[in-house]
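Supplementary Note 3. Input sequence used for the single-chain structure prediction.
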Amino acid sequence: MWRDFYQNELKLNVIPFPAHPSSPQALGWFKKPLKSVADFKGMKCRQTGLNAEVYAKLGQSVVNMPGGEIVPAAQRGVIDCAEWVGGVEDLRLGLPQVFKYHYTPGMHENNSIGELGFNLDVWKSFTPQQQEAANSAVKDTFITWITRWQKQNADAMEEMVQKHGARILRTPPDILLATLKAWDEVAKENSDKSPTFKKVYESQRAYAAKVVPAKRYMFPPYSFAANYYWPQETKPGSTR
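The predicted structure, written as discrete structure tokens, is reproduced below.
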């Protein structure tokens, strides 16, 4: 379906492969603490894409800008908050130097998938062995990246707290719930406008309707073992 969208909807002569995934992204960085979704009203926040549509419904005045402009904009007071990625990517961008409060998790982007693309004519010119070599390399990089990235995120959170004095806090539950409700509205609006969006979204929902109930039984609650070995009162970035 992904390749069909590129080749038949966008009319691009490419073949994409999933690469470089991320873990669930943080809610974002803020200059002031959050108590509830009502605090979003009038807040100028860097958001992009469908995410911007969601948070606009929650009262934010969303501002779309490249990542490299976030820190200068925050320093000049152009924005009050920003969403980037979380963990090591936020540290690399310098967000802990201009924002004090970091709220996580967010519900807007449970995973992000980068991509590697080949010109379709070039891909077809490869031998089957060359195509399989490319496939294997992409899959190996996918697993290696996400494994390494988790450790980098943990190290980054520790540095944010200990070196930059950041406050890493749990997102208030009413914000998470309001995000899901706003997303339902955004998904419906985009489904009504775009047959492609509707097709993809319905496919994702059908998959989730089958898999999620099974995972409730097959996967132990993450907090169960986590709280046994690392009780909840342990602060993010601590060495305990």
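The chain has a mean pLDDT of 93. Residues 39 and 59 are 9 Å apart (CA to CA).
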